[in-house]
UniProtKB/TrEMBL annotation, chain A:
Membrane topology summary: Peripheral membrane protein
Start and end residues of each ABC transporter domain: 6-255
Record bears the keyword Chaperone: no
A Gene Ontology BP annotation from the UniProt entry: transmembrane transport
UniProt-recorded name of the protein: Peptide ABC transporter ATP-binding protein
Source organism superkingdom: Bacteria
TrEMBL record, chain B:
InterPro entries in alphabetical order: AAA+_ATPase, ABC_Ni/Peptide_Import, ABC_transporter-like_ATP-bd, ABC_transporter-like_CS, Oligopep_ABC_C, P-loop_NTPase
Domain ABC transporter: residue ranges: 9-265
Pfam families the record matches: ABC_tran, oligo_HPY
Biological process per Gene Ontology, one example term: peptide transport
Name the UniProt record assigns to this protein: Peptide ABC transporter ATP-binding protein
A single Gene Ontology CC term: plasma membrane
Similarity remark: Belongs to the ABC transporter superfamily.
Keyword Cell membrane: yes
Topological type in the membrane: Peripheral membrane protein
MF (Gene Ontology): ATP binding; ATP hydrolysis activity
Length: 330, 340
């Protein structure tokens, strides 16, 4: 594995809710003890259902939401220890790309102004250099230099996502959180953006935390994958290992649920019943046990630790040794 | 006695237009489509393809003054065995068909459910509107429908508001409401798009089971080719307001014969494990350019500006839907080479 650029240790985000003068509040555990690393030039995927905490994790790493406890380190900087005033300097090292580029671009600013603002805020280049840099950025993401003079509404969804990517790249970041960047795009356009991300990764050596719900996109783009459920890591490993040989029942269920674009494939699969339980009142022991077809009494008693298996892949399930979850695609 | 040989719905040459500031936009340009009893037909396309406008046209839900059906016919076989043209039906006749003989479910159940009314009351209302039921009978029907869509503890869940349910549960309520009057045809417009994959699978399995038991025809509108492979018997691919290819589901995935269909299938991220193991970088064969702008369609074939097989003839005229093999047709003059 490449040397780690981002190190996340025991990250927790808890929200107090419903607390008032007359009422004892409760705690919503959005993230509970999450640890992982992202290597230099590595793309790490983050999957899980809505409510699993994947978006919260992406934002907590960037300190766009304040972690309750735990540590995030980027290079030699302790992100979690920085006073808010020093965060701005760090923002040039870490950036984010959003799902809906239209909602995240200022409709009254031309593309050139949007990109120029990022450069100005971080005091990158002189005014003249900036125009040059804006044109270069646009070309890098596959748009003509002339796009700088136009406004977001003049672009299609895919082109807007290219602008969102250019804005993230403007400040030369080392690390980018991509929060569902292709989920809102048409299939034919999604493929263009996936190819663009592959190009940028190769050319710039970027490290990415790629949040998604489409498992085929995650497998295609990511070196390693983290599976999150109710704010906890269920399993993590290389994409190849995790997809071929899932060791957690939840991972298997997620892989089974993804529709395969081949009408001749009929599979044996685990269908999960019900929905994600409330993070305010999570199940005792393993949080997945209420939907797990393999749950036994012991699962309610202990929180399963994230164990490292012989393949180097890590899983939080007390039965992972005895279950055979290899995917029997018929 | 009902006539089993004619399709449940036979759409012929449907044209739907909208008036905009810049002139008339033709969103659906002559669509032919049939749905048989107990059959699931998937209508696939990207944004602007006209797939949702087609489904709204079938329900006659195109807003007056904004758009209108300006051509074609939609022959629907009613419960009594009569064939009626939905295009020509007056609004009050449509009201008796909509929600009764034709049910519908949409992408976002929260926006189609009334947030101030308990779900049981909403299903009961749908049932009472078309069936001669007392309040008590209608409530019982609502509970029965909630049980049918596998909502646990249906008598108690009938008594809650939509916001107290999860997205998957709300979509089940929508299905219960759509099926409360035993429709012969169900129109499902991206019913699982807003759901997690695990919940999507539950809903797809539910729809499959209900179709087996009830035997309704389903027009399933989606952009997700994985979902198409899961649910469809037949597929119609739309682009720029026209059907560009139609075939039984296995035939379409095995022998796509329109460059757009082939491009869509090639765009799907599928990992070549051998290539990855040998350290090669994976790349997708993306379709270049943007989806067609319905306000400004190109000359000739709508797909020609993005097409790898384009020749000058493609810009001269819109190609016809040409037969490939029986039941498989493609709107491409070079289908024979694309077919491969």
């Amino acid at each position: 594995m490449a040397e780690p650029l981002l190190v996340v240790e025991d990250l927790e985000v808890h929200y107090p809710i419903g607390k008032s003068l007359f009422k004892e509040g409760v705690t919503l555990r959005a993230l509970d003890g999450v640890s992982f690393t992202v290597g230099k030039g590595e793309v790490v995927g983050l999957v899980g259902e809505s409510g699993s905490g994947k978006t919260t994790l992406g934002r907590a790493v960037l300190r766009l939401v304040e972690p309750t406890s735990g540590r995030v380190q980027l290079g030699d900087k302790d992100v979690t220890a920085l006073p808010p005033a020093d965060l701005k300097a760090l923002r040039s090292k870490m950036q984010i790309i959003f799902q809906d580029p239209y909602a995240s671009l200022n409709p009254r600013m031309s593309v050139g102004q949007t990109l120029g603002e990022a450069l100005m805020l971080h005091k990158i280049g002189t005014r003249k250099d900036r125009d040059q840099r804006i044109g270069d950025l646009l070309e890098q993401v596959g748009l003509p230099r002339s796009a700088a003079a136009r406004f977001p509404h003049e672009f299609s969804g895919g082109q807007r996502q290219r602008i969102g990517i250019a804005r993230a790249l403007a400040v030369n970041p080392e690390f980018i959180v991509a929060d569902e960047p292709v989920s809102a795009l048409d299939v034919s356009i999604q493929a263009q953006i996936i190819n663009l991300l592959q190009d940028l990764r190769r050319e710039l050596g970027l490290s990415l935390l790629f949040i998604g719900h489409d498992l085929s996109v995650i497998e295609f783009l990511c070196d390693r994958v983290i599976v999150l459920y109710l704010g906890r890591v269920m399993e993590m490993g290389t994409a190849a290992e995790l997809y071929a040989n899932p060791r957690h029942p939840y991972t298997r269920a997620l892989l089974d649920a993804a529709p395969v674009p081949d009408p001749t494939v009929r599979r044996d699969r685990i269908t999960l019943k019900g929905d994600l339980p409330s993070p305010v009142n999570p199940p005792s022991g393993c949080v997945f046990r209420t939907r797990c077809p393999y749950a036994i009494d012991a699962c309610a008693e202990v929180v399963p630790p994230l164990e490292t298996l012989e393949s180097g892949h890590r899983v939080a399930c007390i039965r992972s040794h005895e279950l055979n979850l290899a995917n029997p695609i018929a | 006695m009902t006539d089993q040989t004619t399709p449940l719905l036979d759409i012929r040459g449907l044209v739907t237009e909208f008036s905009t500031e810049t002139g008339v936009v033709r969103a659906v340009k002559g669509v032919d489509l049939t749905i048989g009893q107990g059959e699931t037909v998937a209508l696939v396309g990207e944004s602007g393809s006209g797939k949702s406008v087609t489904s709204l046209s079938v329900m006659r839900l195109i807003q007056k003054g904004v758009g209108a059906i300006t051509g074609g016919e939609m022959l629907f076989r009613t419960r009594s065995g009569q064939i009626v043209d939905l295009v020509q039906q007056p609004e009050n006749a449509m009201r008796a068909i909509r929600g009764n003989e034709i049910g519908m479910i949409f992408q976002e159940p929260m926006t189609s459910l009334n947030p101030t009314q308990k779900v049981g009351a909403q299903i009961a209302e749908a049932a009472r509107l078309h069936q001669n039921l007392t309040r008590k009978q209608a409530w019982a029907r609502a509970v029965e429908m909630l049980a049918l869509v596998e909502i646990p503890d249906p008598a108690r869940r009938a008594d809650v508001y939509p916001h107290q349910m999860s997205g998957g549960m709300r979509q089940r309520v929508m299905i219960a409401m759509a099926l409360a009057c035993n429709p012969a045809l169900l129109i499902a417009d991206e019913p699982t798009t807003a759901l997690d994959v695990t919940v999507q699978l539950q809903i797809l399995e539910l729809m499959r089971r209900l179709q087996r038991e009830i035997g309704m025809g389903i027009l399933f509108i989606t952009h997700n080719l994985g979902v198409v492979a899961e649910v469809a018997d037949r597929v119609a691919v739309m682009y720029g307001g026209r059907i560009v290819e139609t075939a039984p589901v296995r035939e379409l995935f095995a022998h796509p014969s329109h460059p757009y269909t082939r491009g869509l299938l090639d765009s799907l991220p599928v990992v070549d494990h051998a290539a990855r193991a040998s350290g090669q970088e994976l790349r997708l064969r993306a379709i270049p350019g943007s989806v067609v702008d319905p306000r400004n369609p190109p000359q000739g074939c709508d797909f020609n500006p993005r097409c790898a097989w384009v020749i000058p003839e493609c810009r001269a005229a819109v190609p016809a839907l040409l037969p490939v093999v029986p039941e498989h047709r493609a709107r491409c003059i070079r289908w024979n080479e694309v077919h491969g």
